[in-house]
Amino acid sequence: MTKLVDKVTPQSARIASIDFWRGVYLLMIYINHVPGNPFSYLTLKNWGFADSAEPFVFVSGFSAMLAFGKYFELGGTGAGLLRTVKRAWQLFCAHVLLVFAMSAIIAFAGDYTDSKPIMEQMNFSPFFVETDTAILRLLKLGYMPNMTDILPLYIVLVFFFPLGWYLARVSSVLVLSVSAAVWLWANISGVSFNNYPEGMTWYFNPLAWQLLFVAGMVTYKERSRLSLLLRSKALLVFSIAMVLFSFLAAAPWTHFESLSSYRIIPPEVLAYDKKESLSWIRVIHFFALAFLAVRLFPAKSMLWNNRVVKIVSICGRHALPVFCVGIALSLIVHIVLQINGAGVLASGLCVLLGAGALIAMAAAFEVSKATLNKVAKPPSAPARG
Q1: How many Cβ atoms are within 10 Å of 104's Cβ, its own excluded?
Q2: CB of 26 closer than 8 Å to CB of 181
Q3: pTM > 0.85
């Protein structure tokens, strides 16, 4: 595998650290969606307020500037809009196919086990009981079963990108101010997008989560200036303190029965941890984590030449298929474990096998892409004597 990685990894404008961290968060998302597995205790969600969703959205904003910004810069508004609409359409198709695939998995599982609890738990009941209404709402992004929430959020953010890009071009302070105002309004008013059945809202409120997407955009635009902040000892001390406070508030040791009642920080602090509306405490914790990560592993670090890092980075370079297959795979593993009544060891083994399958799939995409690029490359003209 490592030789394969070295052979097919392109030396392009891609940023190695971005691919790696995105790959890590994709694997975390897969792991966290398999219930009862021991590896979930090692992911971000058990060690503080922010989890894998925050860095994933932030990195998406950073990557959007890298991927879409050049179309606006070089090709103008028309080319930029065409590129963003194309990407939004890809995401929409992937989202719809994912929901249909998951419904097929649940329907197939009904022949072997009682799939009704999973159906209800994951909000798939409308898909089977009110199929016409559910499909219509699905196509309007008004119905999202559990675990399918992030792609609709990303679709909205991609559509928002052109406005964000033009505001950022005027001033980074301007686009951040507008974004922060919308985030604050969403948190104070509670306004969000509707989900189905009636009374439900989007799990990731786009009006709030756009803050991290915009922050990622601005970070890319101002990366040279922001690199100076890495020298700040005050920010270093604050970030360490925030990460430590978050760790103590999350109290991961309470997962052990003998320590379940032992807390250093009162649990009332967790009331400020609201994922749907991206509460302020999650934002601060994420930026503290991001600061420490960049400080410890800068862009020129030798870490990015590590073979394991390169393997994980493959997942980051093929984020959409890895995410979709990972979600479907986590559902399959969930059902298999339910049928067999498997314990912690079996669930952990299934997670490892699934993660390996995702990496192998991403590697196959990498090889396929490298092969197609090689075929498409025109042959060099013969030398003339």
Answers
A1: 11
A2: no
A3: yes
